[in-house]
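Task card 7
Instruction: Convert sequence to structure tokens.
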Amino acid sequence: MTAVEIRDLWVELNNNDQARDVLQGVDLEIERGERVALMGRNGAGKSTLLRTIAGLVDPVRGRIEMTDGIALLTQNPSDYLVRERVGDELPRAEGMAALKMVGLEHAIDADPRDLSGGERQRLALAITLAGRMEGDQIPGFVALDEPTRGMDRAHKTRLVELIDGLAGKGAGVVVATHDVEFAALFAERVVLLGDGVVIADGSAAEILSGGWYFATEVARVLDLPGVITPEQGAAALLGEGAGS
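Output:
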């Protein structure tokens, strides 16, 4: 089942009183249960695409069809923080469940503005998904825009588990990220944007090993087709050793 379908999407934004086409004829489908990394250099149109899908930006033309709603985490966690206490941002049992999900249950009495950048990002993620992680409440489409800023490896691993869990329950999950190593951990598919156009769309194994800029460290060192994570690299080396 399709989570979101985009056809011939054009978005124009003004910059210094000059209009610029930020998205140019984008066609894209995300299926329920897919885990997709949305990648590209700064200014490629990643954030604009997610915000347009969420209805925060009006397209010039094109069609967006979506089933069962969207949960969007934008790049700025301050957009979500309006209370003076973490526990007030996320009240009741579903709020505490969301805090535990991101590892912030210990900060329930803290002022959100006193948290670190990574903690604020995780709190915004909890607010986005509170009460929407089970059963019929799960959105058909979950979009996360650069969610790993300020996160250490352990919290990235926890985020991968969350993404896997949401996809396993039927959400199509798209994460806009510059973090190639993180993308290799969670994504089965990678969509590359360049100047508002989809320039590549394929498996993570193909995209993240096929070019220097977007290749993982393992792919750069070993230069083996489809080998993009340390675990895959170790398995490949052990296999070569066994056959030598």
